[in-house]
Amino acid sequence: MLSHFIKMYDSLNDAVVALKDGQIFFYNEAAAKMIPDLDKVAPEDIFPAQYLRYDAERFAGEMKLGGLNVNVQVTVDGSYRVFTITPADTDGIEDMSNFFSSFSLELKNHLSILKMTTELMLSHIEQQDDPKLTRYASMIYHSYYNILRVTNNVVSIGEKTSGNKTLNRTMFDLIAAISGIANTTQHFVAERGVTIKFDSALDSLFVYADHSMIDKLLLNLLSNSLANTPAGGEITVAVKKTNDRFIITVNDAGTGVNPDVLKNVWKRYAAERDLTDPQAGVGLGLSIVHCIALMHGGSVVLESRPGAGTSVAVSIPLVEPGEMTLHTQVVPYEDDLQKFLVELSGVITPEHYTHKYMD
User: Fold this and answer.
1) pTM here?
2) pLDDT tens-place string over residues 271-313
3) Residue among 346, 355, 326 nearest 149 (CA)
């Protein structure tokens, strides 16, 4: 079997590490260059525990290796687990963080004027009771929230990859938070015929994490699943606790990801998309999910079945609060409803941006 691995992987430019029964069985020259003293370290010293235990034939993730962001593809075949490691596409993001911040500030100034003038029109539109005027206003609002989401996401990537973003940890009930988001999202997409189910054996689970970031993480996962789930489909959001971690999983029965695309799924701006589709994003959703997980000391894996669906599992360590420090609460949205109008803007219709939601 060793000769088989040597023939397949030894001359590859990508780093390859293979495990047999949980122990390092083979690595190629590229892996030896990327990971110092590879013959002396244990698998758990290299890879997140989630990557060593996740039960799927093929999945993808991203992690830090010696301070470098890398993409990881994992193939499981019986007692063998093969890791293919490539540098992540993050060059230039850190250097452009300041540019993105300045760009965001200027764009948001213009967006605030756009929103203010639209709100001033609302009272007149309501008095007219004209369906056409109502629809036109909702289209303006929809575009506003779409642009705001893209702007926020670009800046978030710059902040998180450059290390300028810090966590605002608080104690909160994760079960209540996740189930609440799943139920509210169901309300927004009910007319699409998509069912969102929440599944957990836990009645409550208090965690010490950044509440707003966990919300953003889940809404990005739901937005991705909704974009690829046809009418009549089902999305399941699950939460469980294993040892010292909590795991959030979003599983859909949508279009799935082809194996040859899986290697690029974590690359910023590189995800396959239809450029003729005005609702197609810029490929930042999964990158933001990974960044939020990484900031919490966690990891993400993506398993996809072409034509059958996709499952994304986020694993984050449970940590104790330690010495409590009071922080000023950062409110990223105008109110609780706003986060849904922002984060789901790519997958819900303009009808959700009429005055009954805006008031």
Assistant:
1) 0.78
2) 454 434 444 444 577 888 988 998 999 999 999 888 889 999 9
3) 346
